[in-house]
Amino acid sequence: xxxxxxxxxxxxxxxDQVPGQAAAETGEFWVEPASSDGAPTAAVQDDAHADxxxxxxxxxxxxxxxDFGAYVRAGGWTFALKVARSVRxxxxxxxxxxxxxxxxxxxxxxxxxxxxxxYYKAWDKAADDGLVPYFEALAPGQDVELPDSDxxxxxxxxxxxxxxxxxxxxxxAAEAEGIRPTKALEVAENPTAxxxxxxxxxxxxxxxxxxxxxxxxxxxxxQTEWARDIARTDDLKKAxxxxxxxxxxxxxxxDIVENGQVKTPAGQTIDAPAELRAxxxxxxxxxxxxxxxxxxxxxxxxxxxxxxxxxxQTVQADPELRLQERRTKFYxxxxxxxxxxxxxxxxxxxxxxxxYEDDMLQRLEELQEAISSCITTLRKAAPGR
Length: 385
Description:
By secondary structure, this protein is mainly alpha-helical. The protein has 15 helices and four strands.
């Protein structure tokens, strides 16, 4: 696409009265006005002059700078061309070219040198890729074939934060998601606006939740902070406990289906009977058909209770299994009691009278009697007695 020069007056209309604003949105380009013959040049202070003198600015350069200032918000290749053909590239001095410095161009345009340089850098990157001519090949007022507008945002970064380490990471993530980096950078620079959108819009909140869950997998610090926030919020803590229980129960049912085994109430692992596996598959298929956001608590409880009933019936129906269940339950209780009693010690107490209570002694004596009774009963059942 070639920028065409029209024979009009060189005056620049106000920004809100020109087609450049809409053109930036549609991909069309504003046709710049041409200069008239014998147009005067403008004098501007150039940052390259150490002695404070001024340099004469060609009318074409002054016009480009003024146009750039008026249309700077529109962006696009047309405006990058104005910078590329009017701003001196690095290494050239005022005496070697009719172009001016980025600072001088910005003063004429009424904007910051940083903004000018963002257009400059976009053109430089495109030149490296062979899409546009290098700066040295361009003269003030020269027109060239411009790339399609849809590739502009691949080269132009509208925010200085994009050059920081944080901005680089945001840009890379945006490109991976297939969106313009400028959009992501704008959101990152306006956390209050992001908060407002999340609070007001359920779909935005859902997107934010999904993004946070993805980030949690690679950010241990965020995991800790989020867990701490949940633990300190009663409603969230209860919700997490409820969801954890539901997930555990669904996992119990899924293990029966996938592994063909089940744990009894006493902790035995036995082969799941055909009836139990069939029932587990039925409940699991119902749970798997639920929508992602649908509450599974009731379904999980129903499936878990159904599994427990069938397991209990299976144990009661098999004398050998019932005996083993009793033995396992008793031994499990004995292990727990042993561990608790082993931890009960007075080794670290210097003055027992400081912790003594009559109730302590009474409970220990009762415990001793219960243990003695159990020992006597078991001795009677021992082989050879």
